[in-house]
Amino acid sequence: MRSAFLLFVSLALSVTAFPKQHLRRQDATLPATVPRKDPNPKARAAAVAARDEGFIYGPSLIGQAAFFPNGTLGNARTQHDMDLWAIDRATIDGFVAKDVEAVSAALAANGGLKTIDDYAKVLYEGQWKNSNPRGTSPGIMTNYTQDLLFSMERLSLNPYSLRALKRHEPLPFQVDSKVTSKVAGASLKQLQDDGKLFFIDYRWQANLTKTQMEPKRYGAAVSAYFFIHPRTSDFLPLAIKTNTGADLVYTPLDSANDWLLAKLMFNVNDMFHSQMSHLVMTHDVSEAVHQAALHTLSEDHPVMLILERHMVQGYSARIVGEWLCFNPDGHWDQLMYINNIGCRDYVTDTWPTLGRYQANYLHPQFEARGLIDKHGKHPFKSFPFWDDATEIHAGYKAFFKTFVNSYYPSEADLAADHEIKNWFIEATKNAKVFDFPKTVNKDTLIEVLTHFGFLVSVGHHALNGGDPVGSKATLPFHATALFAPVPETKGVTDLLPFLPSAKQAVHYIAFIASFNRQFYQNDNRTMINAYVDDPLLARLNGPTKKAAQTFFKSMKGLSNKIRARTFDKKGLSNGVPFVYRALDPDFIPFICAV
Ligand SMILES: *[C@@H]1O[C@H](CO)[C@@H](O)[C@H](O)[C@H]1NC(C)=O
Ligand SMILES: *[C@@H]1O[C@H](CO)[C@@H](O)[C@H](O)[C@H]1NC(C)=O
Ligand SMILES: *[C@@H]1O[C@H](CO)[C@@H](O)[C@H](O)[C@H]1NC(C)=O
Ligand SMILES: *[C@@H]1O[C@H](CO)[C@@H](O)[C@H](O)[C@H]1NC(C)=O
Ligand SMILES: [Fe+2]
């Protein structure tokens, strides 16, 4: 069990203390200026031209999506970011190694994993104390067989795949009407007509290349209905269809084992979706937009300071992905069902849609999937992701309103900023960002910056980073693959063969734990601190400094609220049988981080 893991930790670089000055690239102390206010416009233009030449748009990494920086400056940037990342990596790997030792001892004492309960107990209770000191989300390990937990995960832990079925579209599959009337008190058609029927489609995963490595792994490519119950208004699962082999439709009326297996099969597909979509939606997009800025904005531009702050070690992630995750026979191939080739194909296939800039702004994105109306109202009893995400989004927007208005009192002031104008042109023309605004005014700039801050913090850490190890990636409910073939008939009696071996399980948890950055709380690298870093703030103007304090206070307030969450009399927390805390602004970083 340990040997597989040692391979992983042995790559850690030996770096010790965290050099604070590496947090930012700009060591300058002069106030940030827009071009028109720069006392030395010639030198500034020359510096911008030198950067334009020194950064080259090189080939994409991990599939065909955003360019990756090449050129003398590009390579220096990548090296710098890798050096920074390596420090965090050494820290987390040290923690994980200790934890693997402890959990290995617990497994040995228990004689391995003999029941499904062992997965939740032996693998987690009192374990991963160093790498995940927050522990698992309260409720997630005890309530995972509940339908409400499974369905509400679609409105919290991965809110990016669910959509409402429109009134007139053909139903993707049929469910026995006796079943729907018993489970939902209505027919599929009635639910659809009332706007209460929802769908998740993972059929496309059938076409992606699967791993060939041992141990043998399996999966379906499920599609699933969820619904709002006409009487209770609870959001619940209705059916899961396998779309492979025997093509079975599972429902809550099946035996407990069959239905749990169906949910496990769903979760295997969902894991692929959440982890791979985060790469495209956040890493690729932020890198592409930032590269356009590297080619056009001065290092002294206030917008550049902000972008750099959100891109600390940003160019390490895809290098690390190529090196350790998506390399042939790497961690991904060892653990997951779809292999690294399937991952790359997914990135290439989805970049033109998930990579779209404006279409993926928070409100349009969720409205397009029918989860909110045009006023931002949702139809659910509770929508945990939406509550926290919109509060953070509003925090960013308030900050950037002040920021943009303070640097550009009038539209004419902004129109006079040729660097910003060039950045917008560059983003579409050379960085090939899809759907970036073609022209700029103050409102557009506020939205562009709000989305950027939102993407690298909320967007990234909703799906990846430190939350999965204690929530959406916990065993036995959220596995990387099935370890026995998808059944041809219902009536499965034993779920154990479908679950990972102890060796696989520990490798998986260790891998997911290595994405945690819980120690960012200790040195002000969490989202609440995005703009209150002294050297950064010192270079920004007075109104921005004030807005940064407001951002800090309001986001700290949200963090306190999230940390105080507990269960009500019904055993629910904001309508969910576990505590949702993925977006705690004093836990998540203001950068993609990993
Ligand atoms: C990076 O740029 C250099 C110099 O322009 C070029 O020789 C090299 O082929 C490029 N590398 C890639 C991977 O494109
Ligand atoms: C969920 O789990 C928590 C912690 O184990 C428990 O207090 C709560 O009652 C459970 N909720 C439900 C609905 O079972
Ligand atoms: C899978 O690929 C085949 C062949 O290209 C295509 O006909 C089919 O529609 C694809 N299925 C999905 C679900 O994308
Ligand atoms: C974090 O910020 C607080 C003020 O907000 C400061 O007192 C503390 O020293 C900072 N910690 C580190 C490690 O920089
Ligand atoms: Fe990431």
UniProtKB/TrEMBL annotation:
Transmembrane helix in keyword set: no
InterPro entries: LipOase, LipOase_C, LipOase_C_sf
Organism in which the protein naturally occurs: Cristinia sonorae
This protein's UniProt keywords: Dioxygenase, Metal-binding, Oxidoreductase, Signal
Sample GO molecular function, one term: oxidoreductase activity, acting on single donors with incorporation of molecular oxygen, incorporation of two atoms of oxygen
An example Gene Ontology biological process: lipid oxidation
Domain Lipoxygenase: 157-594
PANTHER family: LIPOXYGENASE
Pfam families: Lipoxygenase (PF00305)
The protein, known as: Manganese lipoxygenase
Signal peptide: 1-17
